[in-house]
Amino acid sequence: MGANTVAALIPIAGIAMVVLIVWFGERRKEKESLHRTELLRKIAESQGDASQRVLEMVRQQEYQARVRRREGLILGGLITAAVGIGVMVVLAMLERDEPAWIIGVVPLLIGAALFAYVLYAPKPSRE
């Protein structure tokens, strides 16, 4: 294999790896959903105090998942905005004569949009 062939295979292998990671993640989510549906079916068929405790546990898990998603969006927005500011500073230092720093505005605005979404989206409720 020549150097050009190896250089061409590296991006293909990277894309294939990302596709596999996403695919395995989706399969895991599908299996979790299937197990959850089965659990809810069994709860619906049963009666008594145990079913109420299990339903409360399921509600608590859903609430915690919503809170984790919100916290993840906050963190993602802050990190993306910080990357944008960093890119702006580095490009301003490297290219003093050209306004290349303006490229950093793109990730800064994406981070700001993520953060603004979290601020204005309804907060997760326990219901």
Quick structural overview:
The protein has 127 residues and is mainly alpha-helical. The protein is 83% helix and 0% strand. It contains 3 helices and no strands.
What can you tell me about this protein's structure?
This protein has three helices and no strands. By secondary structure, the chain is mostly helical. The longest helix is centred in the middle third of the chain and has 46 residues, at 49-94. It has a domain at 67-127. The radius of gyration is 23 Å and the shape is flat.
Question: Tags for this entry?
Answer:
83% helix, 127 residues, mainly alpha
Binned strand content: under 5%
The string of secondary-structure elements, in order, is: HHH
Number of strands: 0
Helix content: over 70%
Biggest beta sheet attributes: none
Low-confidence region ranges: none
Which secondary-structure class do the elements indicate?
mainly alpha
Number of helices: 3
Shape: flat
Q: What is the CA-CA span between the terminal residues?
A: 60 Å
Give the radius of gyration: 23 Å
**Overall residue-averaged pLDDT value:** 86
